[in-house]
Amino acid sequence: MEKKEIFKKELVEELRRVSELIKNESNLERKIYYFSAGYGITGRTLRFEYNDGYVIADCVMNVAYNGFMERMKRIKSGDPTVIIEEIHFTRISDGLNELADAFEKEESILEPLKKIMSTAFSISGPGNYIREKGMMDF
Would you say the pTM of this structure is higher than 0.85? Predict the structure, then answer.
């Protein structure tokens, strides 16, 4: 097996593992913690086997993770305006699985990354407002 294939295989397996960990965890903070492993594996992978898709996925997941962390901080400080719901993590988990499939099949990663990023956007103030208005459908 080529070096490129070894790194891709590890990336795909790890994205699926992270998806399962998120899905099976009940604690909100631990779900976010597991999500950080998503961009962790893309970052490690691209350092050994560069691919534009790995960079894009890494950036999207990093931004999404930071959005979740920011919202979590606000919730802990007593801000009740936007809550993080189980549907958010279902979409993140699904997006990670779809991303793993796309990398494995060498297909477009756009749709899974859109799912991840739009989910993160939905927990921001403007994103939540748009979702409450019914303009963003989960």
Answer: yes
